[in-house]
Amino acid sequence: MSGVSVVDIIYNSDCMTGMRKLPDDCIDLIVTDPPYIMESRGCGFIRNRNVTALSEIQDAGLADGFDTAVFSEFMRLMERPNIYIWCAARQIPVCIDFFVNENGCKFDIIIWQKTNPMPLFSGKWLTDKEYCLYFRKGGYCNPVTFDDARTVFTQPVNAKDKNIYNHPTIKPLNIIETLIKNSSREGDVVLDPFMGSGTTALAAAKNNRRYIGFEINETYCKTATERVNDYKRRFLT
Ligand SMILES: C[S@@+](CC[C@H](N)C(=O)[O-])C[C@H]1O[C@@H](n2cnc3c(N)ncnc32)[C@H](O)[C@@H]1O
Prior knowledge:
Layout: E1 9-11, H1 15-20, E2 29-32, H2 52-59, H3 70-77, E3 82-87, H4 92-102, E4 106-114, E5 129-136, E6 152-155, H5 159-165, H6 173-183, E7 189-192, H7 199-206, E8 210-214, H8 218-235
Parallel strand pairs: 1-8, 2-3, 2-7, 4-6, 7-8
Antiparallel strand pairs: 3-5, 4-5
Helix pairs in contact: 6-7, 7-8
The structure holds S-adenosylmethionine.
S-adenosylmethionine is lined by residues 14-15, 33-35, 62, 66, 167, 169-171, 193-194, 196-197, 199, 214-217, 220.
């Protein structure tokens, strides 16, 4: 890591504002899960009063996407771009355009195949997978075992963590830990500009990486901070 004096903090801030305060080339890895674009019809998002999980996501303001101007900041913050971005299918083209076509990154696609998807398939395929795009240009990627190198994770949505941390789109901790272990070294600084319930920060702390996070929602930011602090109190003191 290079040049950041204040790490291991999740700031309650808009990420663009926060990232602009960080120096060039100070981040070793970005793992992030920005708000997806979900539609009320077509493309897999059907409002149905029996399907509360879907309306929860929309009510939390997490179905309208994000400002892709953040991508330029990602590039400025990394000497060797090394970036995992979760996104909806319709956000894939804009990501490929920026990172691959305009900035010459290599890319890969990691899939989380959900074994317990919502049973919505009226006139459409199931929404039973999530995409995580990996972009790198000189970035570190070194899985140690055959299993760690797999690009498909097949497992259920973890309803328990979702309820404990009260975040509608919490990601599985084990998947985020695998991304971090495969693409960073101990002591590296991992940034998540859309921190949510703190999954990236916890995965970083558990694996002896440093982290910086931004989360615009005060309640989620508090949850994320308490989640990591609770882990540190129990296991690192
Ligand atoms: C999809 S969720 C991330 C969930 C996270 N991966 C987890 O496991 O809990 C995206 C998060 O980004 C936050 N967010 C949205 N716009 C933001 C912005 N401009 N700056 C910082 N955070 C933002 C939302 O409040 C939301 O918690």
